[in-house]
Design brief:
Elements (H helix, E strand, L loop, with lengths): L8 H50 L4 H7 L4 E4 L3 E8 L15 E13 L2 E2 L2 E2 L2 E12 L5 E14 L3
Antiparallel strand pairs: 1-2, 2-3, 3-6, 4-5, 6-7
């Protein structure tokens, strides 16, 4: 009996199955790495947005000037807490007040903890605020879900 060189049908089927199985794992790795890269990009942009906001806040010496500069945001002012919310679309462009088109939300909270530089000869010095900036992703129902970044610092304001 003469032997024909080549592969049998069973060998070809097994090699195609092994190749398909391996391809599925590699494709899955590409999908996961794409998601991880997108999340890393969002975190990088969120850190830049948060630091930019803190730098903008630091250029103001009067608290009311900083709050008035954020007129397109939602501002909540209580005795010892000031909260400023800003919304961003999926390309990190600021959106108008409201959650309708928001994909990301930045919440800046300033808490007065009672610290001040005191007063001297009747002159009242400013107050020191604890500042916390948090940026969240929004889900389709426009509720904050994943926190991307959280930065804390302190800011001294000469006046209110």
């Amino acid at each position: 009996m003469k032997r024909i060189n080549g592969f049998s049908l069973l060998e070809v089927i097994i090699s195609i199955a092994a190749l398909s199985f391996t391809s599925m794992f590699i494709l899955n790795m590409f999908l996961v790495s794409s998601q991880v890269n997108q999340r890393a990009k969002n975190m990088d942009v969120a850190i830049t947005v948060a630091i930019t906001e803190i730098d903008m806040m630091k250029k103001y010496n009067i608290l009311s000037d900083y709050i008035n500069a954020n007129e397109s945001s939602e501002n909540v002012i209580n005795n010892d807490l000031i909260q400023i919310k800003k919304y961003y679309d999926n390309e990190w462009r600021p959106t108008t007040v409201g959650k309708k088109d928001a994909y990301y939300c930045m919440i800046l909270e300033m808490t007065y903890n009672g610290a001040s530089l005191g007063s001297m000869e009747g002159v009242q010095y400013g107050k020191i605020f604890e500042v916390e900036v948090r940026i969240f992703e929004y889900d389709p129902n426009h509720e904050p879900i994943n926190g991307l970044v959280e930065i804390r610092t302190k800011k001294y304001f000469d006046g209110m």
